[in-house]
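Project outcomes to date are best conveyed with an example. Our students and postdoctoral researchers have been running inverse folding experiments weekly, and each run begins with a structure described purely in tokens. The record below, which covers 141 residues, was selected by the lab manager from last quarter's runs and is presented without edits.
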């Protein structure tokens, strides 16, 4: 079975409870017997949450693999009783960093690297990889 995806969106408004809604939706689906994982996508250019001011962004959740992530990942881990790792966290900074590193290592074989299509492909690959690594029937994002 191919993994399915549920996206919880709320525009640019912060602190409206999207993280709790994401964890709750995941828990409801998990209760129906499906294997669930959850992801957080932050639009920040920052690579991780570790250097962000906690009074502006909120507390940092450190994963088992030592990634400094958004506090929502801690809610996902507690609500869903699953291990959340760095693969479950994405920032715009990480996406761009990955694409640039791949370009510098000739991963694009000398082709012109552009926002479209390379950035969307990187985002899609990261979402699919999180689902695969976690062997999830459904990924809530």
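After processing, the design step wrote out the following sequence:
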């Amino acid at each position: 079975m191919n993994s399915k995806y549920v996206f919880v969106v709320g525009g640019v408004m912060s602190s409206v409870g999207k993280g709790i809604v994401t964890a709750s939706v995941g828990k409801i689906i998990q209760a129906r017997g499906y294997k669930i994982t959850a992801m957080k996508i932050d639009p920040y250019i920052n690579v991780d949450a570790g250097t962000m001011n906690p009074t502006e962004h909120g507390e940092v959740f450190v994963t088992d693999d030592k990634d400094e992530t958004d506090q929502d990942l801690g809610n996902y881990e507690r609500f869903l009783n699953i291990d959340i790792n760095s693969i479950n966290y994405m920032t715009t900074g990480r996406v761009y960093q990955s694409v640039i590193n791949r370009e510098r290592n000739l991963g694009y074989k000398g082709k012109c690297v552009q926002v479209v299509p390379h950035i969307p492909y990187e985002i899609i690959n990261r979402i699919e990889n999180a689902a695969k690594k976690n062997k999830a029937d459904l990924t809530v994002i």
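The mean pLDDT is 94. Residues 115-133 form the longest helix (19 residues). The training component of this project remains on track.
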